[in-house]
Specification:
Strand order of the largest sheet: 1-2-3-4
Number of helices: 8
Shape: globular
Order of helices and strands: HEHHHHHEEEHH
Number of strands: 4
Helix content: 40-55%
Distance between the termini: 52 Å
Strand content: 5-15%
Length: about 150
């Protein structure tokens, strides 16, 4: 059986290199960045504690002060960790000069700093949601120094 798409797939060049989000989603990269910044579950958690997420460093500090009531529910923990990472990435991209979204071939969103350093914001979000460490504001502070 001749399946030409398989031949093209097998001949792919370096599948480990990252692909900038804007190249991955040429049709409407602004909408994709907006989608990554939604973080609805995280925003609901913050609002229920009387806070509002405004894509600022101050809002990361607010998140670090939330009571971790979500840790009792594995499903909420998973989604909230993902949202926390995407929100951290959103704040980095919007406030740190040269920071941009990148998507790895496996679909994982990362933030690339101007220095070239890649930050796995989703992993940082999951760590924060499950253990509280490192704090989101701490990850931001370390990244913004680069």
């Amino acid at each position: 059986m001749n399946l030409s798409f398989l031949d093209k797939w097998r001949k792919r060049s370096d599948v480990r290199r990252s692909v900038p989000l804007a190249e991955s989603v040429r049709a409407d990269p602004g909408s994709v960045a907006e989608l990554l910044s939604e973080c609805e579950l995280l925003r609901v958690q913050a609002a229920s504690a009387g806070g509002e997420l405004d894509d600022s460093v101050r809002s990361l500090e607010l998140l670090d002060q939330l009571q971790p009531v979500w840790r009792d529910d594995p499903e909420v923990l998973l989604w909230l960790g993902n949202d926390a990472g995407l929100y951290l990435g959103t704040v980095l991209v919007r406030t740190v000069r040269g920071a941009v979204w990148h998507i790895w071939p496996d679909g994982r969103p990362m933030v690339r700093l101007a220095s070239g350093r890649m930050i796995d914001v989703v992993a940082a979000g999951h760590n924060w949601a499950s253990t509280g460490a490192p704090e989101l504001s701490q990850v931001y502070a370390e990244a913004s120094e680069c």
